[in-house]
Amino acid sequence: MKRHLRKEIKTKLAAMPADEAAAKSHAACAGLLELEEFQRAVSVMLYLPIPGEVDCIGIALSAWQRGKTVLVPRVSMEQRHMLAVECRSLNDDMREGAFGIREPATGEPWPIEEIEFIVTPALAYDRQGNRLGRGGGFYDRFLSHADRRAVACGLAFALQVVDEVPTEPNDHPVDILVTDEEVIRFSQRHG
């Protein structure tokens, strides 16, 4: 079921023209920047986008302009986990990490309990806050960390919102989902 849904969403994303993806990314990011939870946060974790994901680089630029600490994931394949590492510039010492995703080559891990807002990518979300990642489980393990206090916010194109994402016990939902068309809130646990 997950495999079929991943394939279906990847096909839809690949068919989206670049100019449409750019416009929809801009709309989704604008919605996220309006969130009170984002505006309040001093430390924000963002992903570095790959093709088919909402381009959230504008959020990083806005966060730096507002004096926020920007963190990005660094994956350890050996240990099967993800760390948040401070990123001071998109020109920082970057390398190609797991799955071809850019990540900081250097930098100290940031304590998860000190992160206030986490922007998560996924292939699909449903209207209950469940997310379908790319199958590695890195975000699920990161979001389920006992010390996490951050609001978890999904960022996606509207076409990535489906009726139901198949879930397993180790899957971890998000608190808010922002798309190019709407903001959906699922949980008040971080209000």
How would you describe this structure to a colleague?
This protein has 191 residues and is α/β, with parallel strands linked by helices. The protein has five helices and twelve strands. The chain is globular and about 40 Å long. A hairpin with a 5-residue loop joins β4 and β5. The strands form three sheets. Strands 3-2-1-6-9-11-12 form a seven-stranded mixed β-sheet. The chain has a single domain, classed as NagB/RpiA/CoA transferase-like (Rossmann fold), CATH 3.40.50.10420.
C-alpha-based Rg, rounded:
15 Å
Q: Strand order of the main beta sheet, please?
A: 3-2-1-6-9-11-12
**What is the N-to-C order of secondary-structure elements (H for helix, E for strand)?**
HHHEHEEEEEEEHEEEE
Strand content: 15-25%
Architecture (CATH level 2) name: 3-Layer(aba) Sandwich
Secondary structure: helix percent: 25-40%
Overall structural class, as computed from helix and strand content, comes to: alpha/beta
What is the CATH third-level topology name? Rossmann fold
Counting DSSP E segments of at least 2 residues, the number of strands comes to: 12
Mean pLDDT score, rounded?
90
Categorize the overall geometry.
globular
Report how far the terminal alpha carbons are from each other: 33 Å
Summarize the structure.
With 191 residues, the chain is an alpha/beta fold. It has helices spanning 2-15, 18-34, 36-40, 57-65, 138-143, and strands at residues 43-45, 69-76, 81-86, 94-96, 102-104, 117-120, 124-126, 131-132, 151-155, 161-162, 176-178, 183-185. The strands form three sheets. The chain has a seven-stranded mixed beta sheet. A three-stranded mixed beta sheet has the order 8-7-10, covered by helices on one side. Strands 4-5 form a two-stranded antiparallel sheet.
